[in-house]
Design a protein that fits this description.
Helices cover 56% and strands 9% of the residues. It is an alpha+beta fold. The chain has 2 domains: 382 residues, no CATH class; 161 residues, no CATH class.
């Protein structure tokens, strides 16, 4: 019964849309078809349905738990996004074909209307994370800036903003460069298909700590309708003449097709899907799923268009929701993922709170965003772009987008090559071997990161335990002088922050096994005794970057004349027992001895020697 109660939400959306709707008389069609307010209505339905999709994903554990009829929303989020892409593609080309000088100031107008709300939500999210949820309080200003401008996506839902901006730039570039409209349209379509292919071959981003550009099927499984929108606008008269002539048959056919292909898509996604990266059939499975879902998008959008040809939807509530739907889209993810994610309440109350809070916050922020957007738009339009190259600037911007895609494509190929080599080595390694895994700036002088060397401490055939060969960083275990347990220490947080997780690319990170809430840790006292039988084996040299970071070193050791060998030995941190608060922490001394209480937790200068466990059970 509780699960059936959740159907109140799709029913409420239905009422919102069709309250006050007008059906065209028999033999006639709506004069409001595909006008601005109708497109906003379609986008509003899509936006609210996307919220249902994200909420349902959580309660069904992404389809693994059946929650009754509402479970359908777990599978149809991409169909909702397809509406956004169609309306964008259609609106761009229709406006270009029917408005004089449409491209004049195009990017300045579009960037203002899209980026201002995006930046505003990012700023508020960063502030909420820092002030309310105490998340990311150790982030440096540059990283915070990257979050605000969207280089680091705070919310995975923002991927749409990034992709649509790229499509805007491509559209503006080709239609500015070419006088032949069909030639420009062809190139835009080819570029869009290239983006889909680019994202498809990049695969998934398995790093749960950040959202990466053009990774995951959400970047391409509904993009096909952007092309559909472009083609519909280009051949609008012919398409609509055909649809009107055969309206009844087309409506019935696409209604049935929508149901059939949607459920077929669910089956295909469950059987094949996009998450078979570890299987040899991965590309085949993903391509089959993409083909079916692309057809699904076109069929469902066409059915919605057929309905709109006869039914004009309009009421004050729908108009208001249409005016704030972008902000609702941008803010709802924070309520789903952060504000109400771990609160104990019934599903109905949880759904209701997310919807109400998202709409209320969007209603408050939208006027602010609109004022700022309009002012920025006026400012940008007042600039004489001809002095800065005019169309040339658009070409340069489009060129930069293409170059960025080429860069990431080459990077993706390199990552795959290194990853394959690393996993092949790890699968065959023995205890005591030295292996490469990940990259880290170890010298601080050359650009880029160096391949990081690890010592194999354990291999049971399914996983390997790796310890960095050298101390790669320096610091205290805890900033404050206070009794602290390992799980409450600043060093534990630091090891699992971007500073150290960025050692690994998305594929490497997906193979690291999380243990007790940690991806990266330190050796315990018992492990340091177990894996190293002699003190000399525990003596540690450090990297140049660790030395520059303040790592304490001894060039002369009681056990070894290090300076004669060119080594720099340092003491290094071990982790204490979980749940046990101490004012000191165990360490390995410069001579390789284990000391349980020699260093206070806030003592700076200790070397940091990360430990990871890597899954080698699958290729």
């Amino acid at each position: 019964m509780t699960n059936l109660l959740l159907l109140v939400f799709p029913f409420a959306i239905f009422v919102l849309v069709f309250y006050g709707a007008k059906i065209a008389p028999k033999g006639e069609f709506s004069s409001e078809y595909l006008k601005w307010d109708q497109m906003m209505a379609l986008r509003t339905v899509a936006c609210l349905s996307i919220i249902l999709h994200h909420l349902t994903q959580r309660i069904t554990n992404y389809g693994w738990i059946n929650k009754g009829p509402i479970s359908l929303y777990n599978y149809i989020g991409f169909l909702c996004t397809a509406v956004f892409f169609f309306s964008s593609g259609y609106g761009l080309l229709y406006s270009y074909l029917n408005k004089n000088s449409y491209l004049e100031g195009f990017l300045r107008k579009r960037f203002s209307s899209v980026l201002v709300p995006f930046f505003l939500v990012n700023v508020i999210t960063v502030l909420a994370n820092h002030l309310v949820y105490k998340k990311g309080t150790g982030d440096d200003p540059l990283y915070v800036l990257k979050q605000i401008v969207g280089i680091e996506l705070l919310d995975g839902n923002s991927w749409f903003i990034v992709e649509i901006i790229v499509l805007y730039v491509i559209f503006a570039a080709f239609f500015s460069m070419l006088k032949n409209k069909d030639a420009a349209l062809t190139l835009v379509i080819l570029a869009t298909l290239s983006i889909m292919a680019f994202a498809f071959f990049r695969g998934h981003d398995f790093d749960d700590y950040k959202e990466t550009y053009f990774m995951g099927e959400w970047w391409f499984n509904s993009t096909i309708t952007f092309i559909f929108g472009l083609l519909y606008a280009r051949f609008k008269d012919g398409i609509e003449t055909f649809l009107k002539k055969h309206y009844k048959g087309m409506l019935i056919s696409f209604a049935l097709l929508s149901v059939i292909i949607t459920f077929a898509g669910i089956v295909v996604n469950n059987v094949f899907g996009y998450y078979h990266e570890m299987l040899s059939t991965y590309r085949r499975d993903a391509l089959i799923t993409l083909a079916v879902q692309s057809i699904n998008c076109i069929v469902v959008v066409t059915f919605q268009l057929l309905l709109n040809m006869k039914i004009a939807v309009k009421n004050k509530a729908l108009d208001h929701m249409g005016s704030i739907q972008m902000m609702v889209f941008l803010v709802h993810g924070y309520f789903v993922r952060t504000v109400f994610d771990h609160t104990k309440m019934g599903h109905f109350v949880w759904y209701l709170l997310v919807f109400v809070c998202s709409i209320l916050v969007a209603a408050i922020l939208s006027p602010i965003s609109s004022i700022a957007s309009n002012r920025l738009k006026r400012l940008l339009l007042s600039i004489d772009v001809k002095r800065f190259g005019g169309k040339v600037a658009t070409y340069i911007l489009a060129g930069l987008v293409v170059l960025a895609m080429i860069f990431f494509a080459i990077r993706g190929i390199a990552i795959s090559r290194y990853y394959d080599e690393e996993m092949k080595t790890l699968s065959a390694c023995n205890v005591g071997d030295e292996v490469y895994f990940g990259r880290f700036d170890t010298d601080g002088s050359r650009l880029g990161k160096e391949r990081l060397k690890w010592i194999v401490l354990q291999n049971d055939g399914k996983r390997v335990c790796l310890l960095t060969k050298e101390g790669i960083a320096s610091g205290y275990l805890n900033q404050k002088y206070e009794e602290v347990s390992w799980e409450g220490s600043d060093l534990r947080k630091r090891l699992n922050s971007d500073e150290f997780t960025s050692i690994f690319n998305e594929k490497e990170l997906s193979k690291i096994i999380e243990r007790k809430g940690e991806l990266i840790s330190l050796l315990s006292v018992s492990e340091a005794e177990k894996y190293f039988s002699e003190n000399e084996d525990r003596q540690l040299s450090v990297t140049d970057i660790a030395l520059a970071g303040g790592c304490n070193i001894n060039e002369l050791s009681k056990a070894n004349n290090w300076d004669m060998k060119g080594y720099r030995s340092s003491w290094w941190w071990l982790r204490g027992d979980f749940g046990k608060k101490e004012i000191t922490s165990p360490i390995v001394t410069v001579d390789g001895e284990i000391s349980l209480s020699e260093r206070y937790v806030n003592k700076p200068g200790g070397a940091i020697r990360p430990v990871v466990w890597v899954d080698i059970s699958a290729p």
